[in-house]
Amino acid sequence: MNKTEMLKLFVLIERVYPGFRIKNDIVHYYFGKCEELEYERALSCIKGHIRKYPYPPSISSIAAECLRQETSLALRSITWQEEYMPASELS
Length: 91
Prior knowledge:
By secondary structure, the chain is mostly helical. Helices cover about 70% and strands about 0% of the residues.
């Protein structure tokens, strides 16, 4: 994710949760932590949080949820490959 995308996420959070304020130093700090996240996945995680909770999400909870989704997707992909690949190709 680039800085512009991350800033879009912060703006979304700020609009939904009026008590949340974006500060320049926070953007710089969290960009180093979030640049490996995919924007669309992070946006999906934030939207899910918004539907469930009346308080703003922490960046660590968003990152953890994104990682959980990526791991789950990777495991499903491996399972699919094992189920449908011929046994001769598994060796």
